[in-house]
């Protein structure tokens, strides 16, 4: 038994429109949107009365997907602290390869994102950084050098 592929990563957000705009600015494309509810989604989530809206985003190469989920019911539970740092247990970031890290950071900052630390160079291989977007989502960016 072995996995076949990573299908998608799911992120729960309060402001679905802001999250979609952030990932579109990053270069992702909206694959589709749908309201989701019913007994099957209650059972798979282990929750009662689930009612959500989802937006499926995909990378330009078509291989990476990100599901943005807005809960209408039940109420969302906030993680603490809201703007957790990189050493907090759990999923901390999603990394994307970009062709121009400076232009990507500038575009995201113009849309309200914050640089977590600095853009740094790792040997002669990558320029790297972390950016915090809506809902405290941390996105890692990597520009391959050479």
Automatic annotation (TrEMBL):
Domain of life: Bacteria
Domain VOC: residue ranges: 5-144
Any GO MF annotation of the entry: lyase activity
InterPro entries: Glyas_Bleomycin-R_OHBP_Dase (IPR029068), Glyas_Fos-R_dOase_dom (IPR004360), MMCE/EMCE_epimerase (IPR051785), VOC_core (IPR037523)
UniProt record, GO biological process: L-methylmalonyl-CoA metabolic process
UniProt xrefs under Pfam families: Glyoxalase
Keywords from the UniProt entry: Dioxygenase, Lyase, Metal-binding, Oxidoreductase
PANTHER family reported for this sequence: BLR5325 PROTEIN (PTHR43048:SF5), METHYLMALONYL-COA EPIMERASE (PTHR43048)
Protein name from the UniProt record: Catechol 2,3-dioxygenase-like lactoylglutathione lyase family enzyme
Source organism phylogeny: Bacteria, Bacillati, Actinomycetota, Actinomycetes, Propionibacteriales
